[in-house]
Every structure is written in structure tokens, then in C-alpha cells.
Amino acid sequence: MTMPEPLQKAFAGLRVADFAWVGVGPTVSKYLADHGAEVIRVESNTYPEALRRVGPFPGDIPGVDSSGYYANFNSSKLGISLNLKHPRGPELARRLVEQCDVVTESFTPGTMARFGLDYESLRAVRPDLVMISMPLYGQTGPWASYMGYGHVLQAASGFNHLTGWPDGAPIGTGIAYTDFLVPHMGAIGLLAALDYRRRTGQGQYIDFSQFEAAVHGLETAVLDWTANGHEQARMGNRDPEAAPHGCYRCKDGKWLVIACFTEEQWVALKAALGRPDWCDLERMRRRWQRQAEQHEIDRHLGFWVEDITRRPDEPAQSRHETAEGVTIVRYTSYELMRYLQSFGVPAGVVQSPEDLHRDPQLAHRGHYWKLEHPVMGLRTYDAPAFRLSRTPGELTKAAPCLGESNEYVYRQVMGLGEDEFVELLADGAFE
Amino acid sequence: MSQAPPVPLPHPTGPLAGYRVLDFADEKGQLCARLLGELGADVVKVEPREGDRTRQNGPHFRGDQGPESSLYWWAMNAGKRSVTCELRLEAGRALMHRLAAHADVVVETNAPGQAAPLGLDYATLSAVNPGLVVVSITNWGQTGPYRDMLATDLVAVAMGGHMHLNGDEEHGPVRTLAPQAYAQVNLQAAVGALIAVYARGANSGAGQHVDVSMQEAVANAMDNAQATWDIRHVNLSGPGLRRNNTGLPTPKYLYEARDGWVACLAVGGLVGPGSGAIVDWLAATGEDGGLDTPEWRARLVELRPLDDDERSKLEDVLAAFCRIRLKEDLVEEAQRRNAGWAPVFGPSEVVESKHLAARDYWVRVVHEDIGESFVYPGAPWKLGLTPWQQRGRAPHLGEHNEQVYGDLLGMDAAELRRLRMRMVL
Questions:
Q1: CB-based contact, A121 to chain B, within 8 Å
Q2: What residues of A are in contact with residue B366 (Cβ under 8 Å)?
Q3: Inter-chain CB proximity B226 and A230 less than 8 Å
């Protein structure tokens, strides 16, 4: 056996001018950066990228180079500052694009065109350019100019309606959810176009609407309406295809989820429970019957989970004064997950961000990277969810400070002379 | 690069035209394969003789429980071709390896260790076709302490941390009914697949193995919660009608309108530099609740966070204002005033959206087998040169056996009949 030759990084030699901002755009270009592309964030001090203004900040002290939010989505990238409103700003941007293979942007439609940076203009300087625009609602239509973030887009695209309790408000996820769903879709379209360019030499423009991408995350909710006339709605943690399907509080303060879709899983759960009488009742026999008994099943499971778990300071085993004098084992939430899994029951702990940082599986996969940042120090970054066996992703550096790569990009990539660079700097073009 | 013959479909228009994908996936990978198909790849869904398990997934068309009426199957497998192949038989594996020689990407979702007995492990497939990109999507990844644990969507949104961010204090964590661990892992797997496909260009056509973890895909959907723990050591958790923000208090962003709900960040824009325009709006109808004063206006543009009393004052004013108005009227006027509001839409309202109609978003997919057609979600990307294309309804079980095995492998009717009798097809 010979070891396979080391391979070139997937995007070695590819250069990206990244005008996008907030959550979606930077996540798309992070994929490229973490797999070998030279991604250049184009930002301005005159209107700093929104994520730079949102924390968390070390020591709770805000600063354009201190946002952990910004940092996590901008690993492996370079960063320049460029004031597009400076008289020579747009020209400099076009000169940068001339040296790039890809342009990404997520401004309100029309913004790039106002600076002469729309696809047609840029194609004139770089004919094989692949460009993706990714605002909330796309380039056209009555909502094209509408503003918002992932919080409100999750509302418009159906996620709030489908998240919460049946008798309660459409609370949605607690985060700007679509900002962390649609960038993957954006990347798929961009990568497909890039591969087409690799094979044919032809670039193209992609009008990407976050709204339209998000709708693909609704699984059957659209077809259930258009084919069946059935409007799906939030139902807490229940699922129309499974019973039980719920979330139960453990004594150690954590929550445990249990899901039984198949007969096999239900039989396994019964064994794990020790076959109490209630689960062998006739009305619990088939899934469609259990579906109607979910309230009762949840009540039993709720009691059982609470009873069989222990506070961290309680002993794992205790001898109980029962007629048989049996030893009762009590579990932490994680031990109970393992106990249920050993029977073949899908179960898991609702892990907090802290738990994820300690999760042995994510640690095994090396999900979190520690990268040293000149202002923020050693910080934790997320890696992609996949490991490529021969061209693995690599987070090569911490997020860029605003304008940290100015000298390299303006002088070496774009070829500005020293005098011109200093003159533009003095004149505020790099603000 | 692939040596595969040209794709026989009549409309190879997308950027991935010329590629072929073999889809052995369950809920974790069917959308991934479908998206590659809509971008131009020929996607062949390979099913066991009794049909893919997910053909049983509900909801079903008009409640009919048959294997051809699962709306889940329709949604996730539209535009694919279906062949049957019994991978538990030697002859079935041999047949599939012949097909794999004509493929560029394999998407499989077997649990770790269970692909090899079916001949779908990377070592076996890469020996057949060194240029193949094999995407293995599992609950936790191919190796590691949790590798053998079971998971469903619910388990993955819990163990990946996302569920911790949703819900409220009273009821605890909550999931989204439309399974988001599945959505996340499908999309992220497709990204990994395409990076590996692209990498073939720089590396003389060498394929590779893409090991995707559903838990890890969910862990990437945590907003700034990971960084907030890393930096502030605060665990974000279900905020109800509010939103998580690095552990700092936020005002409610959801308000009840006369006909539903509206989502409006920062109490509708009453906080921050644009707040004046919203106070103007409230004042114009006499519903500013006392906010139309120089002191309040100055306070609302300050950076200093609101205290509890100030926050509930704003929330009360906005709640009263919204309650008597229609959600789409509210959104239209708020947007005119540069505030990022949106209506809370259910699936039917998404389908009826005037904006999506104006962009000609929806596609109508013909189900000629039952003499009807239905509206499906349309292009996630409008590609200027190589358009996205919906390629028709989901396939019946084994619908394309003759086409695929005949055209690609040159098998004739007699040979297919023999395979059928040997229970391979």
C-alpha cells in the first residue's frame, strides 16, 4: 500500500472579493476560505459590518476588532478597508475584482449598482467572474427593498409558525435562524457555478434570495398545504409520525429527548422502562393508537425520567426500603441517555453551548478550533460539519481585524505603487 | 474527471450537468441529492426491492398510506430516477459497482460500519472508481465515542445544541416541527460534496471521502451562542417572545396583530438610530403612549441599554399599536419607515406570498400518474447562465430500471429479467 499523494487544497489559487456582511454572506465565503481560497473581506470603518457591532466582546468592551460573533464566521479570511463613498473607492473595488474569481455581496438590491459594482460592470473587467448576491428577498419583487435579519425572515418563511406550543405564540427559534440555514444553500449554488466555470471557463451571476432558500427548509409543510390543503402548525415537541416524541426534565437540571418512530424503538423503550403496566395497555399497542395517547405517555415518561435521574450530588445507587429490598440505580441525564441508547431507544440530552464545548464526540471530530486573534486572544471557532479525507478544511487564521490586509492586497494583489497607496491612505480612501 | 457517458435526460441545463449522483440516503441525505439534481446532475435513487423506508413517511397524499403517496417522498425525491437493487446479495453489490463506475458522487447514510457489508464503504467504492466522491452522512460521524448511538431529528437538534436556544422558561426547550437537523445536515453535506467535486479539478480527478456529522451540522446553527459561551461564559437558552443576544436582555420582538403576528426587531425599531421614524408613526396616529417627547426620542437613540421599566414601556406601546392593525399593513408601513419588520407566515401564507409570486418562484409539478399537478418550492438560486430546474415528480419504485441499467450498463431485457428472478431487482 502506498499512501495517496498529498493533494492541493480544494480552492487553491481561487481569490474572492467578499462584499457580503452579517451572517449569511460571511458563512458562504468561510467555506471557501477554510478550504484554501484567498477570501478578502471588503469593509469600511465609515459603516462597520453589523456583526462587528454586536457581541459577545471580551470583557464586554465593544470594539470593531473584538466581536466573537464576527470572528466565528470569518476564519481564514483576509480583510481590507475601503470606503466606497470615497471618489476613488468604486474604481479601487473594480481593480480588486479584476484580480478575483468570485464576488459575494448581500446588500439591499441596487447598492452595488450605485457604486458601479453590479455584475454587468464587473464582468467588463473580469469576464469569467462568478458573482452571487444574497439579500433577504432577492433582486426583484415587491419586497426586494425590505430590510431585516434572520429573526424576521424566520417569521416570514414559516419557521415561527412551526415552532412553539400549540396553544401558544409562534415563538420561533431563539436565534436569527435563517442566517444559519440559508448560507449553506447559497454556498451550494455558488460552488455549482464555480465548478461549471472550472469545466467551461464561463462565469455567471446568481440572484440568491434568502427567503426562497429558507422555504426549502420546511420539509413537507408546503406540499401538505398545496396537495392536501392541510396547514401544518407548531405542536411543541410532538411529531405526527412518532410517539412518544418529547422532551423531559431530569433532576440534574437538564432536559432529555426521547423519540420512538418504529415498533422496534417502542419495544426497546418498554424494556428500558421495565415494562410498567401502562405501556402494555391495549390502547398503547400500535403507533397510531399511541399517537392519540401522547398526553398520557408524556405524563408517565415525565415522572419516570424525573424519578430515575439524580442531582449531581446524589449517589448513583441507593438501597430503597421496598419489599424486595432492591438497589435502585439513578442516573445523570447523560447516563440515562446511554442507558436508553443501550436498549436501542433514540435519546439525547438537550446540550447547552457549554456542553457542546465539552462534548466528547465534537472533540473527537475536532469541531472547535482555537485560533489566536491579535485583539481577542485565543478564541473558539466552528469548523464545517464535514471532513474531506484528502483535502480537509483548515482554519488557517483568526478573523481579520478591519483593514489588516490593506498593504498586501492593495500593493501586491492590486499592484498599487507605494506613492499611490500612501496618497489614497492619506486621503481617506481606506477608511 | 469523470469518464461517465453523457446524461441522457433531455434537459441537462444546470451547472452540474454531466455529473451523476447515486443516492442511497435516508432523511439525512435525500434533499442533498435532490438539490444536486436540480442543479443539473442525473440523480439515481437506489432502493431495496421492497422500496425505500422513507416511502412510508407521512404526511400522505389525501391520507392514502401507499408507497407512492408519501408527501415526504414526493418532496425529497422529486426529479430523481429510481432503480431497485438488492445490496444484501453479492449480485446486487456487483451491479451497483458497475453503476458506480459511471457516477461522480455517492450519497449514503448507513451507520458507521454498516456501509461495508453493502459494498458502499469508501475503500470498496474508490477501488471501483477512484474519481468518486463518496458522501457519508451519519448521526455523529464515522468515528468517535458516540458513533454508534441512534438519532432522529429530535435527538440531533438536542445533542447539537440548537434546541437549547429555543423555547421558554415555563415549558423548556422546543423543536421546529419541520425537522431542522435533517435540513441542516442535507444542505451542509451538499456543500461538502461540491467542495470535493471541485477539488477533483485541482487534483487530476482524484475523488475522496466526505464524512458528515448531523450533530456537527446542528452545532453550526447556533448563532452566536458558541462564541457567547467562549467569551462570556453564559449559556443562551429559550427566550420565548424575546430573542437570544449574548445573554443580555432583549425586548420582545414578536407582537400580536389583529390577524396574526408580526416580527419586529428591537421593539419595532424603537431602539437605535432609526427610532425617530417609528415614534413619528406612533405619534401620527396618537398612539405614541408618551414617547413623542424630546427626552424619550433622545433616550431611544442612546447606546446605553434599556432598563426593565423602559423596555416594558416600549413593549406595551407597540403591543397596543399592533393589536388593532393587520399584519401586512403594519409591515408595509414599517418597511417604508426603514424598520425591518416581517409578518409571521404559516405555510399557506408563504405559498400565497405576493412577493414570491412576483418573482415567479413556485413550480407546478405534474403527477401524470394520478392526473394532477401540485405546487412545489422553486429555485433557491436564479443562475444567469445555467438555470436551476425542477425535473418532475418523485419516481415510482424501480421506475427507471430499464432506462438506467439499459442505457448506462447496456443490459438487455433478458439480463434484467434474470436479475429480477434472482431477486436482485
A1: no
A2: none
A3: no
Cα–Cα distance between B240 and A45 in angstroms, integer? 35
Print the SS3 string covering B368-423.
Answer: CCCCEEEEECCCCEEECCCCCCCCCCCCCCCCCHHHHHHHHHCCCHHHHHHHHHCC
Query: Cα separations (Å) of B200 from A10, B132, B263?
Result: 8, 9, 45
A15-219+366-426 CATH fold = Rossmann fold (3.40.50)
Q: pLDDT 10s per residue in chain B (425 long)?
A: 344 444 444 446 899 999 999 999 999 999 999 999 999 999 999 999 999 999 999 999 998 888 899 999 999 999 999 999 999 999 999 999 999 999 999 999 999 999 999 999 999 999 999 999 999 999 999 999 999 999 999 999 999 999 999 999 999 999 999 999 999 999 999 999 999 999 998 898 999 999 999 999 999 999 999 999 999 999 999 999 988 888 888 889 999 999 999 999 888 888 888 899 999 999 999 999 999 999 999 999 987 888 999 999 999 999 999 999 999 999 999 999 999 999 999 999 999 999 999 999 999 999 999 999 999 999 999 999 999 999 999 999 999 999 999 999 999 999 999 999 998 88
State how far residue A390 is from chain B, nearest Cα, in angstroms. 6
Would you say the ipTM is above 0.95?
A: yes
The structural domains of chain B, with segments of one domain joined by +, span 20-219+368-421, 251-344
Residue entry with cell 483548515: A394
- The nearest CA of chain A is from the CA of B418 a distance in Å of 34
Which residues 267-326 in chain B show a CB within 8 A of chain A?
Answer: none
**Amino acid at the residue A360:** P
Among B166, B340, B381, whose Cβ lies nearest the Cβ of A208? Answer: B381
Q: How far apart are CA A143 and CA B356, in angstroms?
A: 9
CB contacts of A249 in chain B (<8 Å) are 172
Does domain B20-219+368-421 fall into CATH 3.40.50.10540?
yes
Q: Round to whole Å and give the CA distance between A186 and A195.
A: 14
B367 C-beta neighbours (distance < 10 Å), count: 17
Pairs of residues, one from chain A and one from chain B, whose beta carbons lie less than 8 Å apart: 551
**A 55-94 residues with CB below 8 A of B?**
55-58, 60, 68-69, 71-72
Within chain A, which residue ranges are assigned CATH 3.30.1540.10?
A: 245-352
Give the model's confidence band at A319: pLDDT under 50 very low, under 70 low, under 90 confident, else very high.
Answer: low
Between CA A131 and CA A129 the distance in angstroms is 6
Interface contact A141-B341, CB threshold 8 A: no
Q: Into which CATH architecture does domain A245-352 fall?
A: 2-Layer Sandwich (3.30)
Query: Residue A332, SS3?
Result: coil
Tell me, yes or no, if B128 comes closer than 8 A to chain A by beta carbon. no
Interface test with A, best of B159, B363, B388, B390 (most A CBs within 10 A): B159
Positions of A annotated as catalytic residues are 179
Cis peptide preceding B380, ω within 30 of 0: no
Q: Do B154 and A384 touch (CB under 8 A)?
A: no
